[in-house]
Amino acid sequence: MELKTKKINLSTGGPLVAVINEKDAKDLGLHPMDRVKLTKIKSKKEIVAVVDISNKGIDKGYVGLFNELFKELNVEEGNNIEVSYAPQPESVKYIRNKLNGIKLSEKEIYEIVMDIVSNKLSEVELTYFVAAVYKVGFDLKESASLTKAIVDSGTKLKFNSNIVFDKHCAGGVPNNRTTMIVVPIIAALGYIMPKTSSRAITSPAGTADTMEVVAPVALNENKIVEIVKSTNACMAWGGAVNLAAADDKMIKVRHPLSLDPEGMLLASILAKKKAVGATHVLIDLPYGTGAKFATKSIAKKLGKKFMALGKLLDMKLKVVYTNGSQPIGNGIGPSLEVEDVLSVLKGDGPNDLRNKAIYLATEMLKMINIKNAKQKVIEVLDSGKAYKKFQEIVVAQGGNKNIKVGKAKYSFEVKSASNGKISRIHNKPIAKLARLCGAPNDKLAGLYLRVKVGDHITKGDILFTLYAESSSKLNYAVNMLKKLKVIDVN
Amino acid sequence: MELKTKKINLSTGGPLVAVINEKDAKDLGLHPMDRVKLTKIKSKKEIVAVVDISNKGIDKGYVGLFNELFKELNVEEGNNIEVSYAPQPESVKYIRNKLNGIKLSEKEIYEIVMDIVSNKLSEVELTYFVAAVYKVGFDLKESASLTKAIVDSGTKLKFNSNIVFDKHCAGGVPNNRTTMIVVPIIAALGYIMPKTSSRAITSPAGTADTMEVVAPVALNENKIVEIVKSTNACMAWGGAVNLAAADDKMIKVRHPLSLDPEGMLLASILAKKKAVGATHVLIDLPYGTGAKFATKSIAKKLGKKFMALGKLLDMKLKVVYTNGSQPIGNGIGPSLEVEDVLSVLKGDGPNDLRNKAIYLATEMLKMINIKNAKQKVIEVLDSGKAYKKFQEIVVAQGGNKNIKVGKAKYSFEVKSASNGKISRIHNKPIAKLARLCGAPNDKLAGLYLRVKVGDHITKGDILFTLYAESSSKLNYAVNMLKKLKVIDVN
Hints:
- Two copies of one chain form a homodimer.
- The first copy, chain A, is an alpha/beta fold.
- The first copy, chain A, has four domains: 2-86, Barwin-like endoglucanases; 90-137, Transferase, Pyrimidine Nucleoside Phosphorylase, Chain A, domain 3; 165-239 and 269-396, Pyrimidine Nucleoside Phosphorylase, Chain A, domain 2, CATH 3.40.1030; 410-489, Aldehyde Oxidoreductase, domain 3 (Alpha-Beta Complex), CATH 3.90.1170.
- Chain A contains 18 helices and 18 strands.
- Chain A has helices at 22-27, 67-73, 90-99, 106-117, 123-135, 140-152, 179-188, 207-211, 221-231, 245-254, 262-275, 296-312, 334-345, 351-367, 373-382, 385-396, 427-436, 471-480; strands spanning 2-8, 17-21, 35-40, 46-54, 62-66, 80-86, 165-169, 193-197, 233-237, 280-287, 316-323, 331-332, 410-415, 420-425, 446-449, 456-457, 462-468, 487-489.
- In chain A, the strands form five sheets. Chain A has a six-stranded mixed beta barrel with strand order 1-5-2-4-3-6.
- The longest helix of chain A is centred in the middle third of the chain and has 17 residues, at 296-312.
- Chain A is globular.
- At the A-B interface, β4, α3 and α5 of A face β4, α3 and α5 of B.
């Protein structure tokens, strides 16, 4: 059937969708979510799209094309195109197979991922894929196939070195901003570490949000390669780079139910490392009450899978298990975390953040058999070489050499109501308060801790300070204090 | 944040979706598939919608409203509305619970279904619900809750009678158009049978497609009640009536993977019976090679669940298991099936269709303890009373009393290449050929069988005739003959 194109000036966010009037749909024998083949009359160019049937907005005789499809088909408004029924891509069959408990081959997973990245699967089909991996699971071989396919779905970086470092932390612990210390240490020691990080989704700050306080982080592939060539490292926002393109689309449909299908999670993490050419990857899995993993043995189960998958992917991995039962560092929120990072890079505290960064950097050096690794790390930190390297990276990314962090306009001090010893600092309420204050969007907002577990305090001592850029946000956070158990004093 | 409304003249097909520019989304801390609360400045009317983030089509400062949302919010283009973050509905949590293997309460299922029907769930969330029921399953109690909730989600019909008949056939067998014979028999005997049927999705004809050859079937609730009051029965298309509104939305997302989660399938079928007020329901489960159930024992497993669910729903059910290994009747395709139906109603053959219709009608009468049931059924059929009733219903629905069926312009006879006995007629290739000829959209298209299993034939005898309304469709079907195993002669 020949239909006239009509541009729909909207994105679907991925899938190629064509909208057809319900009368035309009936004539073509189409049902919602079926597929159509669109053929340009002159050039014979063909594109298959998912069909959306509407009784409004698209008149009989027209086919509405969402942005992605309009662009892909490369037509003008009002062109005649031939529209006919098209079968589903084979990958939908593989998704159904997975949902039915059947193992997928490397080729099948590759096809699914390529169809995801080229927008051939509808959101509903993609959701079934996530649900299938969540309920049925992926074995290690399937996870390795998924990782490789995700890597192939995007851009790959290549550096002229046998050792390219990367690190990953499972998250859930406020501040814990070790990346911004470890990267300049490793780079100052002469090794390559092209780090990409995420922004916060539910936390008060991601590494990308924090780094953005001092320098632009939305760097493209060419820029990353250039910066790494000149400084050995970078600290970029992963979302601005087309690494692991298919992964972002899967994460989108995982979001509504906050699903972390293990086989997908492992692939997602390692694909991003593999895509930047990483050969040596340190995985930090914090455990403890309030951390992502309640106990060390739970963390170890995942750690073993990481190791096994790393082997299949020909990457050298090391997993460390760290105590994540209280925040690491004092500041929570982008600028407040930068303050801690700068302080450590200048050879000062907070001690827990300094010690953890030293530990992680040391473990990384040990992966390549460097002797006196810890000593070398401390030397590069205390000599100011790491700080100088940090400045270099900041400047290379387009930031200012004279790194300055402002202070929020509004603040509120929370004091202890009794004498005693700090027995616990609750991660989740801390994160929540910092978000209520405006972090991560308000860069100066957040919370600054004055105590750590084990500290002895006197009634009236400041436990923490809330910072906000607007009085209403500060008030809202202050009001929430009554409802939250933030710090236990015994 | 205050944004100006912009009408998007397109339907989502259900979910309430608001489109926001990515800059505004960042300021609001929104991620794709999050929700926003939209508040009209003056009236304070609030609606929660799923957010779609776009960098095209919607400028900063605007919020795009798809048809459903625009209508629900009852605004004009360019109105100012307050837009803020909103949490997910509770029902999303229940869906996640189900996916994690947790049983759902009646109240929770009710809430999910009501959120589906009022378009509060996104397609992705709805897909997770289907996937969860598919993988985790529903127990009978959950299926009963789902059935009741689906019934409550739509319009309910009520007839002033203690006995309201209905029937259901699991499908998969070509022709098998017993409904159009059973309904007039039961109605002629003085019982109420307000039948709604579906159109074909993958078969060459549904009862609604077939009935449509002789009368309109897109009847609304009032019309159905009126027709049943005057004639005791109707044969309407279920899709035109707002019975089981939530079910249609679930079926839409089940379609891409052709998923039939059992707990959902049972609820879907019985909800439509309950919604028309049915008290006595006959379920026909055809079994055999090429039928929906390969063996009788597989069919019986489902039959038992139907019976148990019927009990929980306070409906009287009877399940019959019939041989479905070859087509019932001769014509396949809407008009060709009508020919068979009319022939039987006039006291003639095809014998298999006549006998099955008599059997089903008899079994229904036995459910209410009618004596000499079979004799009564045959009498009403052979006396022409059933045909007269059929005419009455056709006229009441808006059809012509003088029922006439045309013949397709193009035909092709398929002859036997050898002498022998018909050992098998393959259901699926038969259905495929009829669809290739144009059924169900081309009403006159399809296939007419001249033989049945067990018949002795001579080389050159006609096995079946293909009918089409266009020569190209006929040629396409004829070409496919070589590739298909349609009838086995031994």
